[in-house]
Design goal:
Two copies of one chain form a homodimer. Chain A is of the alpha+beta class. In chain A, 22% of the residues lie in helices and 30% in strands. Chain A has one domain (28-229): 3-Layer(aba) Sandwich (Aminopeptidase), CATH 3.40.630.30. Chain A: One of its GO terms (molecular function) is N-acetyltransferase activity.
C-alpha cells in the first residue's frame, strides 16, 4: 500500500468574509468526494493500481487488466467483499449522486494556489462537470478470531502525485475506519513497507500501531500451483 | 497464527505384508479427515482458539465467546467469506459424511505407538464413533490488485499439542492451498511471528516466501472508535 507523505494538519473551515462583499476571494476551493466505485470506474482503478505499483517499485509484478478487475471486483454487495472507495474532485460544486449503500463524504478544501494536474485527462470521470479521479482505497472484510469479529483489511491506498500532502490519503483511510466503526467491526489493518518512513508517520498519526514482530508469508506462482497435484 | 514445529517427512504409504497373512500388524492406524466446520463445531473452535492464544502469548487479546463465533462465522457460503476446515481423527474408520460444498480429505496415518490425548474429552465431536477434533484452519478471501485476483488469507492454523510433529499442520495448510488452486486464486498468505523459527522453517518447506520488508499496521480499540466522530 502506498502513502507518499503524511498529510498537513486539516485546513481550517472557510471563514465568512470579514469586510464588505467585494473583499478578497477565499483561494481556490476544491470540491472533493469519497464515494463507492462502480464498474464504470474500472479504467481509472486500473491506471491507479499501475501508478501504485510503480511507486512501490513493484511494477514488474503488476498484471491487472481492466477485464480482470471488472470480473473480480463487483460480484458482491459493498463491504461484504472487495470494496473500492474513489476520491474524486472538481473546481465546480459536485452534483449529488444516488448511492443507497453508502453516503458519500463531501468536503470543500481550500488551497491558496490552483492545483496543476498534468495527467488529468485519463482520469476525467465526468467531462461535463469536470470531475477528476484523484485516488482510491481498496479494502475487504477480514476476521479476528481473538475478537470473534470481522474487521477491514486495506489492500491499497493511493493518491495521485499532484494531490498528495493535502490530507486526501487521511480522508480515504478515515472513511474506511468510520465504516468499520459503523458496522461494529473490531480492527482496520494494512501493511507498510519498512522503508516508507513518511507512510509510517502518517499511519501512526492516524492512531495505528505498527506490529513489528509479524512477517507476511506468501505462497504463490508455481509453488502454489504444485498443490493442485498434492495428495492431502 | 500458530504452528508448533515443522512436520516430519511424510510417512511412507502402508506396504502390503510381505510374509504370510499372520505376520506383524502395521502399528496404530489413525483415521484422519479434514472437513468444513459447521455451527455444531463452535465449542471446539472456541477451545482451540483459546489454546492458540496461550501458545502465541496473546491471551490478553482473547475475547471470543461461543456466541460471538456462532454469530459471525456461518453467514456466507463456504469460501466466499470466513471459512474453517476442521481436522478430526479416530482409531476407528471414519464413516462418510455429507458435504456438498467440499469433498473432505481423508488419510490413514500409521504410528508405532498410540497417541496419548490427555484433553480428549473436551474435543469429542462424535462420542459414538469416538471422533476427536485435533486442529483447525480459518481462512477467507483476500484480493491482490496486482494480480486482479482473489486469494486466501489464513488467519489461524492450529493443531493440538499431542498431535503436533505428525504432518497435520501441513495437511491443513495444504488443503487451503489446494482449494485456492482449484478456485483459480493467485496467492495464499498468512503471518508468522518473527521468533517462531520452527514455523518459519515449516512454511518455507511448504514453498512459501517470507516477505521481510512488510509490517502490519493495526487500528483498533479506542483509536478506531474515535473515527465514529471524525468529519471525513
Amino acid at each position: 500500500m502506498a502513502a507518499a507523505a503524511p498529510p498537513p494538519p486539516p485546513a481550517p473551515a472557510p471563514e465568512p468574509a470579514m469586510g464588505p462583499p467585494e473583499s478578497a476571494p477565499i483561494g481556490h476551493p476544491l470540491f472533493t468526494r469519497i464515494r463507492l466505485a462502480t464498474p464504470a470506474d474500472v479504467p481509472f482503478i486500473q491506471k491507479l493500481i499501475h501508478q501504485l505499483a510503480v511507486f512501490e517499485r513493484l511494477a514488474h509484478q503488476c498484471e491487472a487488466t481492466e477485464a480482470a478487475l471488472s470480473r473480480t471486483l463487483f460480484n458482491s454487495p459493498p463491504f461484504q467483499s472487495f470494496t473500492v472507495f474513489l476520491l474524486e474532485l472538481s473546481h465546480s460544486p459536485l452534483p449529488p449522486i444516488s448511492s443507497p449503500s453508502f453516503t458519500p463524504h463531501d468536503r470543500v478544501v481550500n488551497s491558496d494556489l490552483p492545483i496543476t494536474d498534468p495527467e488529468k485527462d485519463p482520469f476525467i470521470s465526468d467531462p461535463i462537470n469536470e470531475i477528476i479521479v484523484a485516488g482510491f482505497v481498496l479494502f475487504f472484510p477480514n476476521y479476528s478470531t481473538f475478537l470473534a469479529k470481522p474487521g477491514f483489511y486495506v489492500e491499497d491506498l493511493y493518491v495521485r502525485e499532484c494531490y498528495r500532502k493535502k490530507g486526501f490519503g487521511r480522508m480515504l483511510l478515515s472513511a474506511v475506519a468510520k465504516q468499520a466503526v459503523k458496522m461494529g467491526y473490531g480492527r482496520v489493518e494494512w501493511v507498510v513497507l519498512d522503508w516508507n518512513v513518511s507512510a509510517i508517520k502518517f499511519y501512526e498519526q492516524m492512531g495505528a500501531q505498527v506490529l513489528h514482530d509479524w512477517r507476511i508469508c506468501r505462497l504463490t506462482g508455481e509453488a502454489l500451483q504444485a498443490y493442485d497435484h498434492v495428495n492431502i
